[in-house]
Amino acid sequence: MAYSDTGPYYSTGYGQASNAGEVPPTTTATKPHVCARCGRQYAHARGLIRHRKQCEGRYDITCLVCGKMFTRTDKYKQHMNNKHPEAVVTM
């Protein structure tokens, strides 16, 4: 059986030549969690909670090497691994 992207699981039509440039509709029904400050929409409450820290300017984590500020620990760790690998302590 050959691979096909036209089967019943690919029936939205988005990305087809006739629909070039169209974007699938996004409604508050699919993304009910909305930021009161900027209007950004999220499908899950955890996404909105994470976004609020940045939107409100609450940068709780500061890089001790360069002073860059972060709202998320995972982004701080990524920064340390990429920008200051000599300062990263592994256990």
Automatic annotation (TrEMBL):
Q: Which GO terms describe its molecular function?
A: zinc ion binding
Q: What's a Pfam family in this record?
A: zf-C2H2
Residue intervals of the C2H2-type domain: 61-84
Q: Which domain of life is it from?
A: Eukaryota
Q: Does the keyword Transport apply?
A: no
UniProt key word Metal-binding: yes
Listed A to Z, the keywords are: Metal-binding, Zinc, Zinc-finger
Protein name, UniProt field: C2H2-type domain-containing protein
